[in-house]
What we know:
By secondary structure, this protein is of the alpha+beta class. It has a single domain (4-193), classed as Alpha-Beta Complex (Cyclic Phosphodiesterase, Chain: A), CATH 3.90.1140.10. The protein has helices spanning 13-29, 56-71, 105-114, 146-159, and strands spanning 4-9, 37-38, 46-53, 76-86, 92-100, 132-142, 166-169, 171-180, 183-193. The strands form 2 sheets. It has a 5-stranded antiparallel sheet. A 4-stranded antiparallel sheet has the order 3-1-8-9. The radius of gyration is 17 Å and the shape is globular. The relative contact order is 0.28.
Amino acid sequence: xxxxxxxxxxxxxxxxxxxxxxxxxxxxxxxxxxxxxxxxxxxxxxxxxxxxxxxxxxxxxxxxxxxxxxxxxxxxxxxxxxxxxxxxxxxxxxxxxxxxxxxxxxxxxxxxxxxxxxxxxxxxxxxxxxxxxxxxxxxxxxxxxxxxxxxxxxxxxxxxxxxxxxxxxxxxxxxxxxxxxxxxxxxxxxxxxxxx
Length: 196
């Protein structure tokens, strides 16, 4: 089976450090989450779209179109916004660090880049884009202590008001993902640079 592919933003060091602090804050107030599937710092990213399983030919055909489309789009910024329990605090299956995209620039970028990969194999993701970084996935739905969530959210929100809480979007990376017993393994296929 071909590997699954996705478009994503990589994160700068200061943002990764903030997310590490948010994890520590969450675990201090909600230690029961320690045994859940936390995403390793090197794998943290903002997903733009899942492309599904794609064979090498389909990916290679899309890369030049992706590079050309990205080169016509301006760079922009996202800011850390908070921490959310998904789908709810009482039955969370994931905890996200959320990002603001007030002008919808990220959605526009996603839509332009998706056009570079016409439907082949699995259909591309077309759900509304909610900019976020997945911090942890629960093995089964579980409650998150409201104080732990509030403290982590406040930490991330405060960082978003400072330069260290900014994600400057100058490029998008196309990754392939292969599931291994120890967790997913990501391989960089191409990096599309935006104008400016």
